[in-house]
Amino acid sequence: MPGPDLPARRVALVCLTPRPDAQELGSLRLPSFGIRRIQAALLSDPDLADAQVALIDRREDDVAGYVEEILAFAPDLVGFSVYVWSAPTLIAVARGLRARRPALAIVFGGPSARSAFFDLDPYRPAHAYLDALCEGDGEEIIRDIAKLPAFSRAAWESVRGLTLPTEAGWIRTPPRPQIAALDRIASPYAHGLMPQGGVAYLETFRGCPLSCRFCEWGSKENTKAAFSADYIAAELDAFRQHEAPAVFLLDAGLNLNMGAFRNLRLANQRSGFLKEALFWAEIYPSVVRDEHLAFIEEIGTAYLGVGMQSMDPAVLRLHDRPSDSPRFEAAVRALARVTNIELQIIAVLPGDTPEGFRRTLDYALSLPASVRVYHCLVLPDALLTRSRPEWSIDFDPVTLTMRSCAGWSEEAVAQVRAELRGRALAAGGKAGEFWWSFPRQEERPSLHRSWRQAAAR
């Protein structure tokens, strides 16, 4: 709790919203959401009623511009939200701030705010430019930080759930329970913080019941907690007020928390907004039920991503990914009958091979779906900390792109990337820096049987 003599805090929240790669989204605007969750948390706390909070997002790699804009606000505390695409720029900004104002309190949160990431060579030593990392949900932690009477080491150590850098390494404060009552998380939409006409973001639960090594979700904790139907319905109504053209579901999967899914379905029956906008979501194929198909038919326009990754069961087992090939194809065909789906696979996955990847791609292209291929990234909370030693991974420490690993030489990686670009463009698809998309083709006979026979050889 702040003391009576504590001056009103000035908090700068900083992010870098990227431009869509290859301009594939047309005129749709995707504003940053996570940083506005933090902003809403601060603005909704009555103990921080006198705080002044600024959101700074220059939307480009303008280190000097960020530094000057932040310093012009004269903050007491700066909170950065970092992702793979924004980390190099925003870490450079933090270094610039520390050089200009050595006593300024600096904390990092977001998916890339992990000690293992900051230990990579381009970002060491972290203690030279930041005071703390928030390696989990930040909405309640940021409030505690903003209420500290001073930003001393003792003060930082009093906040549960932080990771603190020192010259000798990292120390962690006592763990913080995850937020069980998700409805107490403030909504940026309810506070009018999201831009009008932008794509809307929706959460119905947090975490993931799976723990695949290649995936940054990676946490099985608290996955039964869900936002209530009342909360979700209020969000949908707010999306309508914000004239959102589309809704992007941030959950690990539409069907990975049944309580959350049923709350979503009930909320939409009350609000009806999902019938008015494009609905994007991920869905886990092997647990698709009739009620999921019915919901998709109810809302009409939807685009579902189906995580396939590889069709080699041995590769999936290496990455702790459950696989059920017969149910997978049946689910894909059932989903394709009611909506647009995109199969998502990963190239340069450790333990796979170029030949195995090509079989997976050919099989995916034989199904009634569009296909997107991602170049494997060594992400925090995923392969950066959960790789196997025998995989011998080598990756770019800035982009986190896999250069080589078990089954993939650098030459093979370059060859497959070139092949993907050529095949995608020839098929009428698109090519980004780390992804390639293929439009849905005329359905061909399933390659599943021939794929399995080849894999067995």
From TrEMBL:
Keywords (A to Z) from UniProt: Iron, Iron-sulfur, Metal-binding, S-adenosyl-L-methionine
B12-binding domain boundaries: 10-156
Cofactors (names): [4Fe-4S] cluster
Entry's Gene Ontology molecular function annotations: catalytic activity; cobalamin binding; iron-sulfur cluster binding; metal ion binding
CDD domains: Radical_SAM
SMART domains hit by this protein: Elp3
GO cellular component terms listed in the entry, alphabetical order: cytosol
The keyword Lyase appears for this protein: no
InterPro entries in the cross-refs: BchE-like (IPR051198), Cobalamin-bd (IPR006158), Elp3/MiaA/NifB-like_rSAM (IPR006638), rSAM (IPR007197), rSAM_horseshoe (IPR023404), rSAM_sf (IPR058240)
Pfam families noted in UniProt: Radical_SAM
Name used for this protein in its record: B12-binding domain-containing radical SAM protein
Phylogenetic classification of the source organism: Bacteria, Pseudomonadati, Pseudomonadota, Alphaproteobacteria, Hyphomicrobiales
